[in-house]
Design a protein that fits this description.
Distance between the termini: 74 Å
Oligomer: single chain
Strand content: under 5%
Length: 395
């Protein structure tokens, strides 16, 4: 029930993403959407915070890779994490076709791992009362807030719009299908896990899925899960780096970031400089080691862009009602779209689940974005003045 509730709340904003992605299929997705209705600085901060969130997420997940790697070889987790970032840089630089093929393969293995958990738990369904809840409705809502972040990531597909065939049709479908498939898998795994171990034992477990596999398979469960997790974290790191580099590329194309970030690799046509920036920045975060606090900026970025996306959809329904919308979020009262309004309410309901230090750090990252934008715009003006003076001095 918690996963279904979290998926429903995510779907509200996913509908807004789908509408905007069909209208503006650009690489700098959230930045591009925001600047349609907001001042340039606001749009920059939204894009900046999203880039920082993706880079930190790549670092945090690569450290997760390092922890699972230690199941097979006892080394400092930062070493395999750095190695993974190096491999991801090479893969992302090889071009979107190769990256997409690898992502598809890894995703199939991830899904296969979850289906395996469902399969081994299926015979146990009925052994535990799935509708017993010590906390009642409140516990379901609290759990929904906790697992809400498990659905984050559907929005990253929008950053690949410029490399997608028929993006106005394909990207919205990918968003909604991805969210739907994830929901079915999560619900299936949760039912299987509770059926095998029971809610009380799962509640105190630090490695719930590993414990489920151990209970059914014996001691080999941890190794099976670690192997699948290595592939899963590889996939997520690749997706985060790819999305961060595309955001930088799109913002640079719009003049919001240095033009150097639009540099493409000769053969693969991938944004090579933006990929390197993303990987080196993630590597710097990995060197820190414990990213518990820093990783919370990802949570802040998610809520910020969700608010921005829903507000933009509502504003555009009034500003440009006749603009072509290949995908349109359903149900409106007059010009007011119902689902984006509900999406905003859902975000504000979930906001209290954010850690206070996450909000403070997120605001700090946003303030840093203001400084970066001011510095870059000043540099742009100086370069423009210099380029105008040189021809005059030559004459």
């Amino acid at each position: 029930m918690a996963f279904v509730l979290a998926a429903t709340l995510s779907a509200l904003t996913a509908m807004s993403y789908a509408e905007l992605a069909s209208m503006y299929p650009k690489a700098a997705s959230e930045f591009e959407y925001s600047r349609q209705v907001a001042p340039r600085l606001v749009a920059f901060v939204v894009g900046w915070v999203m880039i920082c969130g993706l880079i930190v997420a790549a670092a945090a997940v690569s450290l997760g890779f390092g922890r699972y790697f230690r199941q097979f070889l006892d080394v400092d987790e930062r070493l395999p994490a750095a190695g993974l970032l190096f491999i991801v840089a090479l893969t992302a630089s090889a071009g979107i076709r190769r990256s997409a093929a690898i992502t598809t393969l890894l995703s199939l293995i991830q899904v296969g791992g979850l289906l395996f958990v469902i399969a081994i738990g299926a015979p146990h369904i009925g052994e535990v009362d799935l509708f017993t809840s010590a906390g009642g409705t409140g516990s379901v809502i609290g759990a929904a807030a906790l697992v809400f972040f498990a659905f984050i990531g559907f929005d990253e597909v929008t950053t690949l719009a410029e490399e997608t065939r028929n993006p106005s049709r394909t990207v919205p479908r990918a968003l909604l299908f991805g969210l739907g498939i994830s929901t079915l898998l999560y619900v299936g795994v949760s039912i299987a896990a509770v059926s095998v171990l029971g809610a009380n034992q799962l509640a105190v477990s630090e490695r719930p899925l590993a414990d489920v596999l151990d209970h059914v398979l014996g001691g080999s469960g941890q190794n099976v899960l670690a192997a699948v997790a290595l592939l899963a974290t590889t996939n997520t790191t690749l997706l985060c780096v790819t999305a961060a580099s595309r955001m930088q590329f799109g913002m640079a194309e719009a003049g919001a970031l240095p033009n150097r970030l639009t540099t493409l690799a000769p053969r693969s046509r991938s944004p090579r400089t933006a990929i390197l920036v993303s990987v080196f920045a993630a590597g710097a975060c990995v060197a820190i080691g414990d990213l518990t606090l820093i990783a919370s900026v990802t949570d802040f970025a998610i809520y910020l862009v969700f608010i921005a996306v829903n507000v933009v959809v509502i504003a555009l329904r009034f500003r440009t009602p006749d603009h072509a919308r290949p995908f349109r979020s359903p149900w409106s009262i007059g010009k007011v779209p119902v689902l984006p309004v509900l999406g905003l309410l859902a975000v504000f309901v979930m906001l209290p689940s954010l850690r206070f230090d996450a909000v403070v750090l997120g605001l700090g990252i946003g303030l840093a974005g203001v400084v970066v934008d001011w510095t870059w715009q000043r540099q742009r003006k100086a370069n423009l003045v210099s380029s105008l003076r040189n021809p005059l001095s030559e004459q």
